Amino acid sequence: MALQMQTSGKTQRCSRGNSLQHSVHRSIATTSSLHAGSANSLTLAPAFTLPSGRRVQCAAVTDKLRNWFGGLRTPSPSEAAAAETSSSGRQAAVRDGRDVIVQYYEAYNAGDIDTIAGLLAPDVSYHDMIYEEPFQGREEVVAYLRKVRKTVPSDLKFVIEDVTSGDPRAVGITWHVECGDGVVFPFSRGCSFYTLDPASGQITAARDLVESSMKPGSSALKLLGALTPLIRKLGPNADPSTLKRLPLAAAGVWAFYAGYSAYVMLSTAAPGAPAYNTPPEVLAEVFYESLNFFYVNIGLAAAGLSPVPSVPCPPVSEALFNFVNAWSLMALPYMLADGASKKLGGEKTLIAWWTGIMFLTNVFYIPYLAVRAAPEPISEAAAAAAAARGKPALPPPPPADSPLPDWAPYFGATSLAVGLFSIGWAAVGRPEYGDLAQRVSYAVDTFNTNRVFFAFVVDSGLYAVWQAVLLKDAPAGYRFVPFFGMAAHLLGGGKARASDEEGGL
């Protein structure tokens, strides 16, 4: 049997050759696989393409296919409309990113952090540019937002000025902050950029940029022009992440230690004689005060027990000596629990450092802090992985802090008792040393003439700073109240954390 085909106005004979048969069978097989079970909805145009690429018209083949599939027809208008509605419904399921971000700000202004948590992806990254590092993960971001809400007054509200729309993946927004009855807060303008997961509608990345209160103007352009040649010369080393590999913090602490040693220990400009020329009577006084450590020997002598002779010293000097040592005592639990201190060695090494602090205060305390501030060691595996990527390996973050030892409250109680007793001892101890006015006069005169007394006073001021370093996660009331805040935190076992306190940042 032969088939008649029209090609470019000419009639061609079409036999049952293998080429045409193969093309027809392939068309049938393809159509069958695509429309199995729904033949009535198929539409087949009476044209197909030969292997040569020529378009031909073959009514016989079309009729044959209609017979095989039981009749092919074009979908009715109602069916086409239903299909279009279904497709539109699937597209409507993709939420406009603008709606997500507007809901985010409305929830924040209402203090509804739980709603915000639902808008954040589990692995969200949020970088408020006033911080060096971004907050990673939903839990960390939500904890930060809760602290912010607890810190700022409740009437501070974000007011959206403009926000992009029509994109389910990326949103930009400009805003400012108002307080009270629509009062615009100074320097509160900002912009934020958000990346979302179109499938879930959750925020995967956010970046906040807040207006600077400093307005350098054209001087910033001059600074940029001056720095550009240096940045160009440094190349990749100008990347801020490179600075993390450098022991800048440790170098700063070591530099401070050099200045401390030069002035407090060795300088002739500071009050009293330098350490290498300490008068014998000052050395003797320090020795006797050491024998009266924590007033134990004084108490034994008062009870008629004198295993070691108790030589009276000026009560103000005794009180200062014991107060600083009680402060030193409280450092040990924090040193053992501190994650950044683990690079110094094990527990025995840290106890050795602490023993030096107990005897010579900042002669050991500052070097300990310098080593602690050094970057964390890079493992061989991390270095190899970075080398494979052609990038420098960055130091890992310090290990997480451990809980304070179970005996930490005893150290807090002991130090608190010694500290309170020292204050009373300085005021009324050893009545033969005069009244309060005479003791204050003694303290001022001794500060200006005795290098050891002067050093203990300086150490007390520095200890307040070191306390803030070691209690980095404690609420401000514990962290920044010298001595007594540290003692109170230890009494509570160190369980109080800034994240648990009102306004704790």
From TrEMBL:
<keyword id="KW-0472">Membrane</keyword>
<feature type="transmembrane region" description="Helical">
    <location>
        <begin position="319"/>
        <end position="337"/>
    </location>
</feature>
<keyword id="KW-0812">Transmembrane</keyword>
<dbReference type="InterPro" id="IPR032710">
    <property type="entry name" value="NTF2-like_dom_sf"/>
</dbReference>
<protein>
    <recommendedName>
        <fullName>SnoaL-like domain-containing protein</fullName>
    </recommendedName>
</protein>
<feature type="domain" description="SnoaL-like">
    <location>
        <begin position="102"/>
        <end position="204"/>
    </location>
</feature>
<dbReference type="InterPro" id="IPR037401">
    <property type="entry name" value="SnoaL-like"/>
</dbReference>
<feature type="transmembrane region" description="Helical">
    <location>
        <begin position="349"/>
        <end position="370"/>
    </location>
</feature>
<feature type="transmembrane region" description="Helical">
    <location>
        <begin position="407"/>
        <end position="428"/>
    </location>
</feature>
<feature type="region of interest" description="Disordered">
    <location>
        <begin position="1"/>
        <end position="26"/>
    </location>
</feature>
<dbReference type="Pfam" id="PF12680">
    <property type="entry name" value="SnoaL_2"/>
</dbReference>
<keyword id="KW-1133">Transmembrane helix</keyword>
